Sequence to fold (134 residues):
Amino acid sequence: MVIHKHKQDDAVFRALADPSRRQILRLLLGGRHTVGEIAANFSTSRPAISKHLRVLRAAGLVMAYKDGTARICDLNAKPLRAVHSWLHDYELLWTHSLRRLKRYIEDTPNKKKKQKEKGRSRSRDHVGRYTTFV
Fold:
């Protein structure tokens, strides 16, 4: 069961790795489309689009059924939960890191601000040495 789940997750990530397949998913997000309607949105050949759709179907991201002579494709977003769950761990990591950085920046005294509060300013002379003015 666990091995099957990992294979399914791998298939989803593999399917999402291609920009054309992600664009197909964006199209299907707006509703069902025939294979011809999907292909009309791309400059690639219809067989290439059919291949992309096979990869998406194998990953479980697209469901297809026949309606007369047309093949209708529909989005199945359920497999994207695994992607969301996997990315969520990294989102937490980044959120935590950014909060720590924010605290560090807010807690680090601003040297120029402190110098102005003391009524002093520092500048470099023509040789690069610091000179303090009171």
DSSP finds six helices and five strands in the chain. The chain has a mean pLDDT of 84. The longest strand covers residues 62-67.
